[in-house]
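Changelog note: in this version the structure field was regenerated for every chain. One regenerated record is shown below for reference.
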Amino acid sequence: MTTETVTTNPTSDSPLPDGDPRATFARAVALAGSVICAVRPDQLDDPTPCGDKDVRALLGHLVEVLNRVAVIGRGEDPFGAAPPPPAADEAWLATWHQTAHEVRAAWSDPAALVRIVILPWSQVSGAETLGHYGNELTVHTWDLAMATGQQPAWDEQVVSVAFDAIRRILPATDRAAAIAAAAQSMPPERRNFPPPFAEAVDVSPDAPLIDRLVAFNGRDPRRS
């Protein structure tokens, strides 16, 4: 992939304070971009820890996740539009950066942080929703790194925020039942989505934070 300048703050042209969830999410975006940048063309058909997705499909899913965050920031229905078309193999990084700029614009108004976002598994503020998607983005960045032989320098704050966010909405076990119960309080169009979360994997409480995060999301870091 062609090396490009990574935008570290896709939410504002001015620096945001560290406690702002947009700043934390921007750091997750920047790390994902650095991992995408290092993917080689000959790795695109390789398997990943993310179900049956190969590297190419996982890149597409990462862009889809980031696009969904932009849609949410604009106050639109994140499940109401078709996902963006897949990028050409040589354009994944450019597509990632373009979508990151769309996130920056969509979340530039602080009102997006307090707007209630209704998802199939939660009904919380925009700020909390950024934490949920920061979790998904970080876990899929790990998937991509493992599939392509990379060892990123994980941002402990980003990982910690993601871990806190996912533990607020999910138990470690019986997740399908928990999501089904939560769905009963959602509007009808938000029900009947298949649970997107596997059961947690047991790891040592002394394991690195990134290992504990991906294990809680259903990956086994010992098999990476």
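Spot check on this record: Helices lie at 21-37, 55-73, 92-106, 111-114, 126-147, 156-169, 175-183, 209-216. DSSP finds eight helices and two strands in the chain.
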